[in-house]
Amino acid sequence: MMRRLGSLGLVAMLALMGCTPGNLRPDGDQTGDLGTEQRQSPADVYVKLGVAYMRNGDMATALQKLKKGLEVDDGNAEAHNAIGLVYMQLGEKAPARRHLMRAVSLKPKNPYFHNALGTFLCADGEYEEALRHFDQAIANPLYPTPWVAESNAGMCALRKGELERADGYFRKVLQRDPRQPVALLNMARISLAKGNYLSARAYLQRLSAVAEPTPESLLLGVRAEEKLGNRKRALRYAAQLKKRFPDSDQAKALEESTK
Predict the structure, then answer these.
(1) Sign of the C-alpha dihedral, residues 256, 183, 245, 209?
(2) What span, in angstroms and rounded, lies between the C-alpha atoms of 75 and 2?
(3) Exposure string for 219-244, b = 16+ CB within 10 A, e = fewer
(4) Which domain does 129 fall in, by range?
């Protein structure tokens, strides 16, 4: 169960980026460069091109453009962040770490950069340091998508095995948006792991109202209803899982458990 709980899904790459030009001056508050006048950099055009190629899955060209951007302005934090994300996608850990940390050092209050670095660190098993960066992203009052960092922090806390801490992050997400699917799914997982089976059922019902079923949600439904003694509902979930996702790991796990 804890291994399944701990699976970390990266949020959309654009949500990690925050591709804005550099700031003119640092502020003495939590807003950082989001609360300052922006300046143009000769690297900006290369950053935009690199991000566009990354969005289209052309990592080779994205890498070329972003390297060019750093050639003309090595102090461009957005270029460092974006190229770090490209290296992360390519599985090149050392340069990914170097560039993501450089972006944070250049703009230490930028929530996008903290979220990106936190995502990398959590994937690399540095859970506590990752959570520190997620918390710094969340702390910026001008961060327009705090639920992204909160969701990532919740999933990272699950990987660390801290159910209560994860619970706190996902509850914050649901306070902002009660219909957020990732938070609903993970709250169902946490509730099931904690033995709160009625809560798990309730979260899955809320999830079904806003999102299509997934192998994960269907297997959670089977487990929750089995614990609640509702065999009919459990069989309905199981039938959906086998019909819609017959080759999924969850369908195979269900089959193994019923042998």
Answers:
(1) positive
(2) 41
(3) bbbbbbbbbeeeeebbeebbebbeee
(4) 1-160
10-residue mean pLDDT series, the chain (259 residues): 41 49 45 68 94 96 97 96 97 98 96 97 98 97 95 97 98 97 98 98 98 97 97 97 96 87
Nearest to 199 by CA among 174, 232, 177: 174
Number of domains composing the chain: 2
Length of the chain: 259
Of the chain, the end-to-end C-alpha distance in Å amounts to: 19
Q: Phi/psi at 38 (nearest 5 deg)?
A: -95, 150
Question: Would 170 be classed as within a structural domain?
Answer: no
User: What sign does the CA torsion over 165, 169, 170, 171 have?
Assistant: positive
